[in-house]
Amino acid sequence: MKPLLIDGQWVNAPDAKANINPSDTNDVIELYALANEALAQQAIEAAANALPKWSLTGPQTRHDILRRAADEILARCEELGRLLSREEGKTLKEGIGEVTRAGNIFGFFAGEALRAGGELLPSVRDGVGVEITREPTGVIGIISPWNFPIAIPAWKIAPALCYGNTVVFKPAELVPGCGWEIADILTRAGLPAGVLNFIYGPGSVVGQAMLESPLVDGISFTGSVATGKRVAEACARHMRRCQLEMGGKNPLVVLDDADLDIAADCAVDGAFFATGQRCTASSRLIVSEGIHDRFVAACVERLNRQRVGDALKADSTIGPVVDQSQLDQDISYIDIGRSEGASLHWGGERLNRETPGFYLQPALFVDTAPAMRINREEIFGPVASVIRVRDYDEALHVANDTPFGLASGICTTSLKHARHFQRHSQAGMVMVNLPTAGVDYHVPFGGRKGSSLGQREQGTYAKEFYTEVKTAYVRG
Questions:
Q1: What secondary structure letter does DSSP report for 35?
Q2: 202-224 burial, b for 16+ CB within 10 Å, e for fewer?
C-alpha cells in the first residue's frame, strides 16, 4: 500500500483504495492509503507549521530542489508515462508527452525561483523611497483532476513551491499514482518536512477539510463547474483567494477558405485524442456550408484510421474512457443527441477488446443545432458535433454562444478573419489553424465566463496567485 505524506513522514491509514487500469479492469496497479478527516487536518497543520521557515528560504535552495525534481521526472519519463497511461488511459505516447511536460514545468519554475524581482521607486514625497516586493500567499490547498494526473499537479505545485508557499495536495481519486510519485520525487530532492503534504481521499472528506480550515490561505482547483462553485463559496466565506479551472465547450470554426487537411487534422486531434477527456477539447465543430460536406468526409476518413485500444499497445491511437461512470455519461449524451434529432454520423459504439476496459468508439454528430444539449453541456469524452453555418459572422456568433470561455479555434487562410476572431472570440485562449487542445507551459493558461475564476495558471503569470504584493515606504 502506498502511504500518505504528512509532515515529511510516510503515513499509513486504516483504509485504502485500489488504483484500477481502465484498459484492463483486472489490473490493480496499487493500493493507496485513504486519508480521513483527522489525517487531513494533520497535513494542513504541518503545512502551516512549515510555512514560516520555508517562506524565507533563499532562491538558490528553492531552485536546486525544483531542478533536481525536474531532472528526475525527465529521466524517468518513459517509466512515469507508462504509469500515467496505465492509471488514466491515455496512449503511451500521450502519457510520455505529459510527463515530459511536467518535467519542463518544474524546470521552468526552478529558473523562476532565481528571477524573483521587485521595484524600487521614488515617492512623490521628498526623502521617501518605495519598495514593491512579493511574498508567498501562504498555505495552498491543491485539488487536481484525473485527466492530466501529472501535468496539472506540476503546474500547481511547482509555482507554489517556487514562490515560497507550503502545499496540501489532493489528487483525484481515480489517479493517485502520478501524484504520489511527485510527492516522493520532491521529498528525495530535499524538500523540507511539511512543505508538501500528499493526502489522498474523497473530496467530501479531504477536500472539505481544506475548504473549511482557517489555516489554508488559497485553493487552486481544477474540476467540474458544480464543485468549482462550492470551492468558490467556501473561499468567499473564509475570505481566501481561489483559482478555479472548470472546463469548457470549445468551438473550432472552419471557414470555406480553410486548408481542408489542416482543418480536419485540427478537429480530430482536438476532439478525440486523449479520448476527448480534455477541458480544451473541440466539442463543437462550427463549419461554414461551402466546406461542410468535404470537411465531414475528411474527418470520417481520419476517424477510420484510428485504433481504440489498450493505452499501452503500440497500435492504439485512442485509449479507453477513464472509468465506468464517465463511460456511462458519454453514452448518455450520445443517446441525448439522437433524441434531440442530431444524426450520429460515425461511431459512438461501446467496443470490446482483449481485456475488459472502458472502450468507446469516438462519436461524430452532424445536423446539430446550437441549442441542443450536446452543444451546450460539457460531455468530457470522445463526442463532437458539427454545426453548419452560413458564413463567418454566424460562425463567430455561435462560437461565443456558450456559458464557457476556455479555448476556441479557427481554421482559415484569411488573415482578416483570423485576426477578427482572435480579437472577438470570448475565450481565454485562441488557436489559429491549430487544435484547441495543446498549450505551452511557459505562457498563461485559463479562460473566461464559466470556465475560470481567479488568476491565470502557468508561466510568469502564476505569481499573481501564489504571491501577495507588499508596498513599503522608507524614509532615507
A1: P
A2: ebebbbebbbebebbbbbbbbbe
What number of other Cβ atoms are within 10 A of residue 315's Cβ?
8
* 363-366 vs 343-347, strand pairing mode: antiparallel
Mean pLDDT of 174-201: 98
Active site residue 245: yes
Per-residue pLDDT tens digits for 317-370: 999 999 999 999 999 999 999 999 999 999 999 999 999 999 999 999 999 999
Residue-level pLDDT at 476? 76
Q: What is the mean pLDDT of residues 1-21?
A: 97
Judge contact between 360 and 327, C-beta under 8 A: yes
- Residue 399 and residue 387: Cα distance in Å, rounded? 10
Pick from 197, 150, 209, 192: nearest CA to 175? 150
- Cell numbers placing 426: 470570448
To which residue does cell 478525440 refer?
272
Q: Answer yes or no: 235 catalytic.
A: no
Q: Is the pLDDT of residue 289 over 80?
A: yes
CA distance 84 to 241: 31
DSSP letter, residue 16: E
4-246+451-475: CATH class: alpha beta
Collect all residues with Cβ–Cβ distance below 8 Å to 29 and sequence separation of at least 6. 18, 19, 20, 21, 83, 86, 87, 177
**Grid coordinates representing 78?**
518513459
Separation CA 17–CA 36 (nearest Å): 13
Domain ranges (residues) in the chain = 4-246+451-475, 250-432
Distances 443 to 55, 94, 273, 342, 459 between C-alpha atoms, Å: 25, 21, 23, 38, 5
Q: What pLDDT does residue 116 have?
A: 86
**Total residues belonging to the chain:** 476
pLDDT for 40 equals: 98
Sequence-separated contacts (24+) of 78-82 with Cβ below 8 Å: 80/150, 80/178, 80/181, 82/312
Q: Which of 88, 245, 378, 457 is catalytic?
A: 245
Q: Determine the residue type at 251.
A: P
pLDDT of 389 strictly over 80: yes
Give DSSP secondary structure letters for 55-122: TT--HHHHHHHHHHHHHHHHHTHHHHHHHHHHHH---HHHHHHHHHHHHHHHHHHHHHHT----EEEE
Fold of 250-432: Aldehyde Dehydrogenase; Chain A, domain 2 (3.40.309)
Q: Which of 162, 178, 266, 279 is catalytic?
A: 279
